[in-house]
Design the sequence.
């Protein structure tokens, strides 16, 4: 016997549909068998006993998460809520499990009749969605109450959701640099801190910064680029971030390092910066948040901030192609609400269309995989303190997000491009040397 719903939404006994165990249902949905060990709360099992990965479904709520939101969103809900246990890997770095699953997991699409029979066999009541975990952002249609997508109000809320978790949490995960963007490793043996410092210095050299110049750093985070440019190159810097927590931490670091006479980390929207006449603009990790349709306005605004001959360095995650797509249900709800990615070609085209001359670009995707590996190692090393600070559910979100992103960079599903542009003067002079100085 199995359970179905009557008109009142209550379970009633169905004597005609044979019962299906969860393990049996999973096996029927897999092409080539279940590639991991699976154990469910109903006592059923599936998959090889000697698999290095063991997934335990602990309760009915977990099953309802999986059935009511098939794919990465349902899996994330069950995992974050503790309704699924993933054994054989540390929750701060489930990279090996994700590699195994992505390499071996093959679903087959059942016919509507087969799908309905499986659902009835397990119990139609399991299709009712439970309340999502507290770490989950509202769906996009509900976010309309906060304003249209990429309005100032809605962007501020999206940034708050991701970046205002806890400065202490970020210190433990990111390390002393407090830099939450792709590092650039000068050699394979470089540490994460060395690679972040090298990245900032590479940006400064591409922008050809010199003492007395003025730099605007949009989406400045905790002010790593602001402080590096002011300290190492003697420039005057304004950094701006939509995260109040980041701004407070970054400005305190500026003052602690004795840089307040030429550097500022400001809380606010980059669109509200009133100053202009900058010699250079750096945008490191902001473009992912602004929306592809806003690229023309974004690059036009930054162009207008520059003096003739001024340079702009845009550093952001991209797709491997130039199609415009969202970030997927899990990333959108748990990590980057309203995030949107496209390819480097779209970025270069838009920069050219608004009058910026593109002089150089490079892809650092392997560097981002190494960066994420370092962050996951930091999370594992500081796991107990991270859980005490933000809770186990949030810490697990970060572990699976960073490990999954590492795999995506390794497999060329996403990339990281730096694009260097210049604003030519009225005569078309880019004030650019015959060969790039940062390569010498």
Sequence:
């Amino acid at each position: 016997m199995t359970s179905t719903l009557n008109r009142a939404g209550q379970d009633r006994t169905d004597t005609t549909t044979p019962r299906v165990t969860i393990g049996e249902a999973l096996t029927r949905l897999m092409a080539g068998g279940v590639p991991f060990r699976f154990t469910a709360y109903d006592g059923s099992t599936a998959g090889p006993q000697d698999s290095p990965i063991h997934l335990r479904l602990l309760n009915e709520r977990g099953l309802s998460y999986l059935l009511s939101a098939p794919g990465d969103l349902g899996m994330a809900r069950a995992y974050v809520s503790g309704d699924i246990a993933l054994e054989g890997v540390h929750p701060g770095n489930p990279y090996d499990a994700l590699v195994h699953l992505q390499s071996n997991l093959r679903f087959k699409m059942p016919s509507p009749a087969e799908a309905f029979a499986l659902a009835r066999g397990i119990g139609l009541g399991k299709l009712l969605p439970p309340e999502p975990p507290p770490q989950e952002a509202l769906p996009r249609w509900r976010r309309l109450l906060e304003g249209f997508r990429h309005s100032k109000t809605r962007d501020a809320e999206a940034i708050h959701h991701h970046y205002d978790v806890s400065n202490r949490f970020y210190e433990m995960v990111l390390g002393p640099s407090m830099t939450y963007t792709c590092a650039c490793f000068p050699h394979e043996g470089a540490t994460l801190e060395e690679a972040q410092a090298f990245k900032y210095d590479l940006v400064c050299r591409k922008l050809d910064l010199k003492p007395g110049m003025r730099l605007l750093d949009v989406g400045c985070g905790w002010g790593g680029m602001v402080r590096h440019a002011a300290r190492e190159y003697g420039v005057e810097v304004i950094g701006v971030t939509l995260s109040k927590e980041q701004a407070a931490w970054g400005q305190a670091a500026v003052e602690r390092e004795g840089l307040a006479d030429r550097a500022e980390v400001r809380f606010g929207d980059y669109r509200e910066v009133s100053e202009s006449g900058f010699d250079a603009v750096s945008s490191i990790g902001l473009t992912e948040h602004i929306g592809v349709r806003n690229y023309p306005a974004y690059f036009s605004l930054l162009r207008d901030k520059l003096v003739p001959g001024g340079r702009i360095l845009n550093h952001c995650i991209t797709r491997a192609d130039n199609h415009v797509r969202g970030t997927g249900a899990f990333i959108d709800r748990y990590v980057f609400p309203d995030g949107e990615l496209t390819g480097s070609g779209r970025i270069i085209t838009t920069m050219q269309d608004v009058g910026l001359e593109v002089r150089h670009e490079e892809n650092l995707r392997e560097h981002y995989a190494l960066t994420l590996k370092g962050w996951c190692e930091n999370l594992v090393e500081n796991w107990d303190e991270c859980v005490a600070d933000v809770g186990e559910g949030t810490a697990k979100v970060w572990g699976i997000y960073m490990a999954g992103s590492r795999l995506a960079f390794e497999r060329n599903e996403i990339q990281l491009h730096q694009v260097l542009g210049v604003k030519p003067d009225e005569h078309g002079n880019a004030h650019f040397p015959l060969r790039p100085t940062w390569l010498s």
The longest helix spans residues 392-410.
